Amino acid sequence: MTIASNLKAIQSSLASKVTLVAVSKTKPNTAILEAYNAGQRIFGENKVQELARKAEELPKDIAWHMIGHLQTNKVKIIAPFVSLIHAVDSLKLLNEINKRAEHNNRIINCLLQVHIATESSKFGFGIEEVESALNQAKEFKNIKIIGLMGMATFTDDTQQISQEFKNLKTVFNIIQNDHITNLSMGMSGDYNLAIEQGSTMIRVGSAIFGQRNK
Ligand SMILES: *Cc1c(COP(=O)(O)O)cnc(C)c1O
Prior knowledge:
- It is a single chain.
- The chain has an 8-stranded parallel sheet.
- The two termini are 21 Å apart.
- Helices cover 39% and strands 19% of the residues.
- The radius of gyration is 16 Å and the shape is globular.
- The chain is α/β, with parallel strands linked by helices.
- The protein contains 9 helices and 8 strands.
- The longest helix has 18 residues, at 158-175.
- It has a single domain (3-205), classed as TIM Barrel (Alpha-Beta Barrel), CATH 3.20.20.
- The structure holds pyridoxal-5'-phosphate.
């Protein structure tokens, strides 16, 4: 299967309200261009330097999403161009994004990452912290929080994965409004389960580009 045919197969299975973020981390520009030439315009990366380099080298109409954990000291590198930051997991990070957005005279779209997995290694706000974080975020004039993001536990137990996505959807339902419309959940292995539970944005890497070797 080629990148273009993988992409078409996934794209055609999605309802129009689900946005596909093609996760191109570790993949070369040639692979990204193959997806680009098949019509894909939204790409996700999880490392700041790699993201900045690809944004520099590749077509300017690509919307770049930062999907990985973001350190405050690296925000400035992507602030001039990033289209959406998925994994905002602290007020300290929001504060820094706001500062850098203001410096670049722009408003940066963000998703709050919510911790839904049982693994302690996954970052994010607790489900019970989301509303208070949203309230505190209102003071940041150069940030727009447009939704939530979450990652399920890495397990074969599909019931558990579905339950975790459902828990995130429940919080999303409570805070959803005219501006908060995006629910980023689901990757190659679990995006169908995520969509069943109400995902509006899936982040798919290996099912498009093939396995990564790192
Ligand atoms: C790598 C990554 C993905 C995509 O993973 P695949 O299993 O290759 O689809 C999605 N979300 C995040 C946060 C990632 O780091």
